[in-house]
Amino acid sequence: MTMLVDLIVLLGMLVVLPLGLGLLDGPAARLARRWPLLAAPGAVCLWLPRGPLATALAACYAAATALLAVLALRRAAALRRAAGPADLCRELAAVTALAAPSVAGLALVAERSGHRLLGFDLDILALTVPHFHFAGFTAALVAGLVCRAAPDLAAARWAALSVPAGTLLVLAGYFVDDWAELLGALVLTAGMWLVGLTCWRDLRHRAPDRLTAALLATSSAVLAATMLLALWWAAGEAADLPHPTLTWMAATHGLGNALGFALCAVLAWRRLAHRPETQR
């Protein structure tokens, strides 16, 4: 499982994050061009044994994610200037997207140092890193983009609210119990299904070419399956019912979300970013 999770994290650090940052406006978009260089220490530390060198490199990556958290705070301070409900929803999603990698960065430092941060097992810390790159950053980013592209659709607005809320509830569930984490998984899954539904039903047909439409369709279809797996695992943990192992989840839910949802989604939205009609 370790090698697979590390490869998924590499995809998030070096590909999905810079592509996604480029879809935001302001300083985040400018930072996107430098992000692969900033993320390089984090990528290298994944392949080193736990110890001082790996920890130092992980700390360099955590510092880069802290820059994103600062940008998140700046956007949060400007929320009161939101022009309306849709604008507020998509800005909340953007704030969540920018803040999420800092959780991954902190977990990476703890895991690479062998420190059970707040009592969490090292395996859980290792899985927190990809979770907050994909379920944190990418999911919130795409939910905000969907809301920006279809501000008049209630489903898009609810997606941009429930994805950040679900992400925060899942994080809170780490500190409460499995039932709280299940609640977070339910809210996050509802939001992600709304993202997929809106892309499939309303935005896919606006795509300028077949490739963009196929990328949107793939990301939407994958969400239907991978988030169902997330619910199965969370319900099994909470109710002590049979459920997939973490290794199986990494190979299915994790890999599917990384390649089928996140990568396809950011590539599709990069192509759509040059089409003014998708911004109306």
From TrEMBL:
TM spans (from-to): 53-72, 92-110, 122-146, 158-176, 182-200, 212-234, 246-269
Superkingdom of source: Bacteria
Pfam families per the UniProt record, alphabetical: YndJ (PF14158)
Presence of keyword DNA repair: no
InterPro entries, sorted: YndJ-like (IPR025450)
Record has Ligase as a keyword: no
Keywords for the protein's UniProt record, in alphabetical order: Membrane, Transmembrane, Transmembrane helix
Protein name: YndJ-like protein
Organism placement in taxonomy: Bacteria, Bacillati, Actinomycetota, Actinomycetes, Kitasatosporales
